[in-house]
Amino acid sequence: MGYTSRHTDKFSKNFIKYSGLLGMSGDWSLELGAGFGFTASEALKSGASIVVNDLEQSHLTNFIKKHSDTYGDRLVVYPGAFPENLEFNRNSFACIFSSKMFHFLDGPSIERGLEKCHNWLKNSGKLYILVDSVFRKNWSEFHSEFFKRKENKEKWPGWTDKISTYEGTRAQDLPCWFNAMDKDVLERAVINAQFEIEEITYISRPDYPADVRLDGRENIAIIARKTN
Fold first, then answer.
1. Closest by alpha carbon to 127, among 221, 219, 50?
2. Closest CA to 36 of 71, 76, 1, 73
3. What is the pTM assigned to this prediction?
């Protein structure tokens, strides 16, 4: 769903290092919507024990074939749509990572998903989320609508199920729905799910095509901690 990238930003590097340290102490991590598994692969190399989830079974089949001989005791794959088709025991993970998946969920699904993540994490466990922000050049026609909705106190001002109305250049490569966010929208949702924010920042994506790059705020990255 959408695009995948081999570009490893500082946020992903943080998760890779942290999950490796957790793996060395016997704790497990979870990656949601892993795609082809570029980040999970690097996490395994760093020492992580990780459950790798994706909607597409073929991605996981290829991933397990590639890595099971080397990392079989530290690797589990779990197909299914998040959040509705994933279930884990409470306190299963010390860390959960998701890159460029949450923005394909509507608001209620994000809220249910964050609640599940909170349940799955151990106390003091970390949640890493990276999403595409509203601040992309190919979303320029949507900016005024987004801020109008935000001013009107809409909870999810960036939600649309008619992406071609606002995104004319790449809509054919994307699902028809998208949930564009800024820092305020994502931060509020994570706090409402009873997480404590450690860091939230915009991330520049020089690897994005010129028709997508805007002003260095193309992604939002958040690191939060379960505190209760």
1. 221
2. 1
3. 0.93
Instruction: Determine the 3-state secondary structure of 182 from DSSP.
Output: coil
111-120 burial: b if 16+ Cβ within 10 Å, else e: bebbebbbeb
Over its C-alpha atoms, the chain yields an Rg (Å, rounded) of: 17
- pLDDT of 138 over the 90 cut: no
214 CB neighbour count, 10 Å cutoff: 19
Whether the CB-CB separation of 103 and 131 falls below 8 Å is answered with yes
Burial bucket for residue 8 (CB in 10 Å: 0-12, 13-18, 19+): middle
Report domain 10-134+180-226's class: alpha beta
Q: Which residue has the tokens 């706090």?
A: 191
Give me 211's structure tokens.
Answer: 């028709």
pLDDT for residue 168 is more than 90: no
Alpha-carbon distance 14 to 8, whole Å?
Answer: 10
23: enclosing H helix or E strand: helix 10-24
Confidence label for 227 from pLDDT (cuts 50, 70 and 90): very high
1-36: pLDDT as tens digits: 444 555 678 999 999 999 999 999 999 999 999 999
Token match 């922000």: residue? 133
